[in-house]
Amino acid sequence: MATSKYMGRDKGVDLKDAVGFFSWDLSENKVFADSVFAHIYGIPPHELEIGAPIEQVIKHVAEDDMPRVAKALHETIVSGKPCHQTYKISHPSGKSIVVTGQGRCLRNGEGMPSIYTGLVTAEENGVKSNDADRLASHCMEALKLAKRRRHALAERYLTSALGALGRRAEN
C-alpha cells in the first residue's frame, strides 16, 4: 500500500491514519490548521499557524473536482449543514492525493456564517486503506492505551484481535 510518512515535531505519521484539522475565518478569509493539514495540502505549517487565504489551500484541487468542491463549500456556508467531500489534489511534491473532508459552517451571534471548521484525511495515490487496516489501526491504539493503564486482560484480547487481523502488536 502506498503511503507517505509525515515527520511532525514528535514522530512520523502515516497519512492513511492521519487526520488534519482546520478552521476558516470567513470574514478575514484566513484558514488556520494543524501540521497534518499543512502536509496534506503542501503548505508550510507556519503559514497556517498565522492564517492563509482559502485560495492558497484549494489551488491544488484537481480541475475536474473544483466546481463540485466550490459548490459544496458554498452550499455549506449558506445552509450551515454538514459537508462531506472526496476529491483529488495535485500535491506540490508531484504526488496525487485523494482528500476526504468533512466540515460545517458555524454562525456568529447575529446568525451570519462565521467559521467553517472541519477535518481532512488523505490517501496518497488514491489507495484507500481497507476496513481490516483501519480496525487494526484502532486496535493498535487501544493496545497502547491498555498498556499505559496496565490493563493486562485488555492487552491480551487486543493482541489476540491484532493476530486475527494478521498484524503483530508493536512493543
Automatic annotation (TrEMBL):
Pfam families reported for this sequence: PAS_3
UniProt-listed InterPro entries: PAS, PAS-like_dom_sf, PAS_fold_3
SUPFAM superfamilies attached to this UniProt entry: PYP-like sensor domain (PAS domain) (SSF55785)
Domain PAS fold-3: 31-118
Protein name: PAS domain-containing protein
Organism: Aliirhizobium cellulosilyticum
